[in-house]
Amino acid sequence: MTNHLKTFLPTECPWRDTLYWYDSLESTNTHLKNMAIAGAPEGTVVLSGHQTCGRGRMGRSFHSPAGQGIYLSLLLRPQCQPAQLMHLTCAVGVAVCNAIEETTGFRPDIKWINDLIANKKKLGGILTQLSVNTETGLIDYAIVGIGINCNQSKNDFPEDLLSIATSLKATLNHTVSIPQLSGAIIHKLWIMCTELLTDQASIMEHYRRNCITLNKDIMLLQADQVRNAYAMDIADNGCLIVRLPDGTIETINSGEASIRPMHNIH
After folding, report:
1. Could you count the other beta carbons within 10 Å of the beta carbon of residue 87?
2. Where are the alpha helices (DSSP H) in the chain?
3. What is the pLDDT of residues 84-115, one digit of tens each?
4. Which of 108, 88, 30, 112 is nearest to 64 (CA)?
5. What are phi and psi of 156, to 5 degrees?
6. To 10 degrees, what angle do helices 88-104 and 200-210 make?
7. 241 to each of 86, 258, 266, how far by Cα in Å?
8. d(CA 169, CA 173)
9. pTM, to two decimals
10. CB-CB contact of 49 with 190 (8 Å)
11. Is the CB of residue 248 less than 8 Å from the CB of residue 228?
C-alpha cells in the first residue's frame, strides 16, 4: 500500500520517504506519538486501514471501520511558541477540504473547529495534539490526526450515528479511491506546512469561507454549563468570537468549549 500511495504524491514531496502504512492500529495518533518521542522526523505520516480505538476531540470515539475510511496522522516539528500554532486545526481543515475538492470535485463544509460536514452530517474530523519542551517553551512536536468517512453506505454506520454521520460515497453516489485521496491530503498538508507560520491571515480567510458555524445561533458547551450565543467571527488564531444574549462579546478557545448548532446542522 505504501508504494501505491507514493504514486499519488509528486516526486518533490519529501514526505514520500516517511510514509508508514498499517493494516490495523489502535490509533494512528497514539502510534505516531510513540514514534515522535523516539525521534521521528517532521513529515512522518502514519496511515492505517482500521483503527480499534480511534479518538476525536474531548475523548470522543471516532468510528474507524476497516477499509472504508482514511485514518491518517502527521508529525510536525515547527519549533515555535504554542501561541503561534493555535490555528493549526483550521489550517489542516482547509488543506483537507482542498484535497477532497481536487480529488472528487466536492468541497465539504467545516463546523468550528474540527468537523468536516457534508449535507449537514459529519464526514470527518481533525484532532491536533501538541507537546511542549518545558525548558525552551517551544513546541517539541505536533501531531495532526485526520479521519474521513470514505466508502461507507448508510447501513455501515452504527445506529447511534445514522442520523449524524455520512461518507463521501453517500454524498457522491460512488466510491472514492482511498489511496488517491490519501495522497492528495498528504500533498496538501505538505503545502500547508510551508505556509503555516508565514501566511496565517490567508489560511484563516479560507477557513472562514468554509466555516458554516459563522453567522448562526449556537450553544456553547463548557464543562457542565450550556449557554446560547451567536457566532460572529473567527480570529486569526482560530478562536471563535461570539455574542451572548446580553450583548457581551466573548472569545472562545477550542480547548475550553464545544459547540452545538441551534438549528439544522448536527
Report:
1. 24
2. 2-6, 28-37, 88-104, 168-172, 178-195, 200-210
3. 999 999 999 999 999 999 999 999 999 999 99
4. 30
5. -80, -15
6. 60
7. 15, 13, 20
8. 5
9. 0.92
10. no
11. no
